[in-house]
Amino acid sequence: MAALLKDRVIGFAKEAFALVPKANMPVVMELTPRKFLSTPGLWIGLAFPAAFLAAAVRLHRYRGPI
Prior knowledge:
Elements: H1 2-10, H2 13-16, E1 17-22, E2 25-31, H3 33-37, H4 40-61
Antiparallel strand pairs: 1-2
């Protein structure tokens, strides 16, 4: 369970950044948006909240009186 939580919280970093060794610097993190934006976990993670938000708006809008 802890490994799953750790991957959800900070697991994006290995997809979003490339660790590139440079001269006179041990490691530099370069942003790699193509790799990050192509991960299915990102889009699935955005699709669920969007669907639930749309459902909440629809329920709120078309709800009858209590």
